[in-house]
Structure formats: structure tokens, C-alpha cells
Amino acid sequence: MNPYLTRLQPYPFEKLRQLFAGITPPPDLSPIRLSIGEPRHPTPDFIRHALADSLDGLSSYPLTLGSDALRGAIAHWLERRYGLPKIDPATQVVPVNGTREALFAFGQCVIDGTRPGAKVLCPNPFYQIYEGAAYLAGAEPVFLNHLPENGFASGFDAVDEAVWRDVQLVYVCSPGNPTGRVLSLDEWKQLFELSDRHGFVIAADECYSEIWFDDEAKPIGGLEAAWRLGRTDFRNIVMFSSLSKRSNVPGMRSGFVAGDARILKDFVLYRTYHGCQMSPPVQAASVVAWNDEEHVAENRRLYREKFARITPMLAPWLPVRMPDAGFYHWVRTPLPDTEFARRLQAEYNVTVLPGSYLARESGGVNPGAGFIRIALVADTHECVEAAERIIDFCRSL
Known about the structure:
- The protein is α/β, with parallel strands linked by helices.
- The chain folds into 2 domains: 3-42 and 295-396, Aspartate Aminotransferase, domain 1 (Alpha-Beta Complex); 45-292, Aspartate Aminotransferase, domain 2 (3-Layer(aba) Sandwich), CATH 3.40.640.
- It is 40% helix and 14% strand.
- The chain is built from 14 helices and 12 strands.
- It has helices at residues 12-19, 45-52, 68-82, 98-110, 128-136, 161-164, 185-198, 222-228, 243-247, 261-274, 280-290, 294-314, 337-348, 380-396, and strands at residues 32-33, 93-96, 119-124, 140-145, 167-173, 201-205, 237-242, 255-259, 328-332, 350-351, 353-354, 371-375.
- Strand 5, helix 7 and strand 6 (201-205) form a beta-alpha-beta unit.
- It is globular.
């Protein structure tokens, strides 16, 4: 067996299952699950119909690069969304089966684990795929703490020059999971300068980019930042995006990688052997999804409505703040985060995720400890009911 497998930790939801062992929630309270970032708004009918109408495509092997129509739809979306010039769909766009598999596979492609001291920089808290990708590629993850005292900023200055010299890949998540923070143009500029100096590749996880609360403050993307800063070849940066949160189709597993054509050429070679082509019906449904913005605007409206209702409800009891974007509240708890989550489950049948499960100890602290992640993914009525139960729990403390 691959010896690196022993370095993988249990996934957060396995830890949560163990935390809740032996609990029997009150039977008169229906379960409300706000622990997993799984969109639960209805999938738009036109996407479902496009998928069903394309089932004849199941008789054909799909291409690794996907169809011209899909790559073209993604390229045009990038141009519209970020004000980019012509994106070459043949060399700068690669469809993938959701960002999860692509973020992991990308690490296996770009990391040279035979190089002594190979390192991968990750935000902390973080999406667990980054850590697994680093370990299984033979590299060591380096965790960059995102702390409330600096507004959950990336703080690239905190990384020693000696560490930067060994970094081969930097994962950034903007808007962030779980903090909801968006990287500024100045932060992108600093990261690009560091990449030029040390030669590492940037993997920008942007799957929450289409859920924002202020139309005058749309999340800036990595490719947009590169273009605005004169990096018109997108050198050393690729971005990852998905339809899951944008279009409420997590089960379709449809996303893309875009950016530096030189890097993507090697990534396509890797994927040719990886065997992860997207199903033709999913490609057809993805085309219509990327070409439509009305359903995305409606999706944002639903999230805005929920945050507008829930945030002032919780504010007298927990230190909630509006995130820059995304659908999480990242909240400091009056009890240890695991105790808060376990008691909330046991006494009120509301499931949230302890923040310590989303982070690792770095610099002597676990930056997720003492926080919970609340995913406002259910409908408004259910989220309001959950908020009322959380308030009752806080009142009882």
C-alpha cells in the first residue's frame, strides 16, 4: 500500500460521526443539518431537462478535454464574469468532474515529491483535499493560520523565506471556506510576486465565487487579478470553479480548471491517464448552466434572504458577522467547539461542524478551535427554525 496513506486524517464528517456516538436527540425535534456545504436549493428545471434530453450521449466515450461547446461556454463565462479578454477554450480551459477531484489531481500533477523538502502551502482552516493532495504527492503541507485578529487575512508575510524556497504549490480559497473572506487585489499582487521569486504554482479554489451579498463588491478571481496586474499569460496560476454551489447541482460533479496554458497542457496529459472524463449528458447540461445567469441571481437572492434573517437573530447571542461571500457563518462559541456541537445536537437536533475539525495545529494553535461552521444551505424556514433552536441553546448556557 502507498505508505503516505497513513498520514491522512479521518475526514471531518467521520470525526463528527464519532463525536455524536451515543447521542439520541429529542424525538419531537426534526433534524436540521447545517454541517455540510451541500447546496439544497432546487436544481433549475432547464438543467435537469438538458441532462435528460442528452442521454443518447451515454453511447459514446467522452474526450478528456470535453466538448468544444462546453469549453466554449466556460471560456465565455470567464470573459463575462471577470471582464477578461479572449480566453482560448482549446488551451486555457479543462472541464473536470467537480473541483474536489481536480484540486486533488492537480497536486499529483505539479508536485515533485522526489525533491527533498517539497512543501505545499495551505490556508488554515482549510478544505481537507489540500492536505491529502500534498501528502499523497510526497510533499509536506505548511499551514497558514487565518485568525480573527487580522480579519482572517492570508498573512503571507508570516511565512519564512526559507519555507518559501521549498514551496511548490500554494492552495488559496477565495471566497474562503469556512471564513467567507475574499482575497484583495493587493494580496493577489503579493502572492504573484512571491510566485515569480520562488517558482511555485498557485491553485485558486473559487467554488463559492457566485454567492455574494453586495453587487458592488463581487469577489475578485485569480485570473481577473492576474489580468488587472498585467499577467496576461496567467503564468503560474490556475483557478478552479464549479456548478455545484452556483447552480445547485452538486450531484452532477461538473466544474473546470482554467489559466496558464503551459501548466494545463501537462495537467491534460495527467488526466488522460487518470481516466476522469466527464459524461456527455453532464457536459450538455453544463453548457446550458454556464450560459445562463438568471438562475444564479435567484440563487444569490435566496442566500441574501437567509443571511438577512439569520444574522440579526443570532447576533445578540453569538458574535456572528456577515461574510464577504459564500454560505457559511464562521462563529466563535462560548464553549469548546466540540462540546457546543455535541450538546446542540443532543439537546436541539441541530447539526453544525466544529471548527477544530477543519484546521490543524500550526504555530502552537488550532485556528479553528472555538469556532463552529454553520452552513445556511437549507431553505429559509428551516434555517430560521435552526436559528431559534441555537438561540434557545445559548440562552440555556
